[in-house]
Amino acid sequence: MSVSTTLSNAAIIALLACPPATALAATEHYTIDPEHTFPSFEADHMGISIWRGKFNTSSGKVTLDKAADTGAVTGGTVDVTIDLASVDFGHDKLNEYANGPDLFDIAKYPQATYHGTLAGFEDGRPTRMVGELTLHGVTRPVELEITLFNCVPHPMLKREQCGADAFGTIERDDFGIDAGKDYGFDMTVTLRIQVEALHDA
């Protein structure tokens, strides 16, 4: 084997082991804006109405691979932490009840988290999040459909801002939250994560 061939093979191995800097640089990092991010939910009440609530305090990080091609399996990550004590139904007594032992039981489980990957890219934008929700001490796989995703320059901060609206459903008794089940409450809950995030400076 010639010296030139050996050097060529070594170069190929080096490139495979260390991806080009341009590929690594394609991943952008963002911090969730708590003033514009309000995870929310919809739940049945005895089959006669729908309760709606949101969480006023959340935080997290997002990464986005802008080089992800259409059909890419993954192209970024989403990590959201929700302060369950910030639940807001617009009804103080219901908020107190939700934080008690029959529902969220915040004394034992003060936070919920969602860890997912951005997937199903079309025209450079993800169409779903595939991940896991941890709630009430239980972790289950949860997939969310992304119905809106866009990135724009923030007019005042002069940094890129990305936003998304994602939704999916869970069975709350899968997470050990089954209050009302004996009375015929539907355990299906619709989750939404309306999120805005600013590019890290």
Structure description:
The radius of gyration is 21 Å and the shape is globular. The N and C termini lie far apart (50 Å). A hairpin with a 2-residue loop joins strand 8 (128-135) and strand 9 (138-153). It has an eight-stranded antiparallel barrel with strand order 1-4-5-7-8-9-10-11. Mean pLDDT is 87; it is low at 1-25. The chain has three helices and eleven strands, in the order ααββββββαβββββ. 13% of the residues lie in helices and 47% in strands. With 201 residues, the protein is mostly beta strands.
The largest beta-sheet arranges its strands as: 1-4-5-7-8-9-10-11
Q: How many alpha or pi helices? A: 3
| Mean of pLDDT | 87
Distance between the termini: 50 Å
Helix and strand composition category:
mainly beta
Which range best describes the helical content: under 10%, 10-25%, 25-40%, 40-55%, 55-70% or over 70%?
Answer: 10-25%
Shape: globular
Give Rg in angstroms. Answer: 21 Å
H and E order: HHEEEEEEHEEEEE
Q: Which stretches of 5+ consecutive residues score pLDDT under 50? A: 1-25
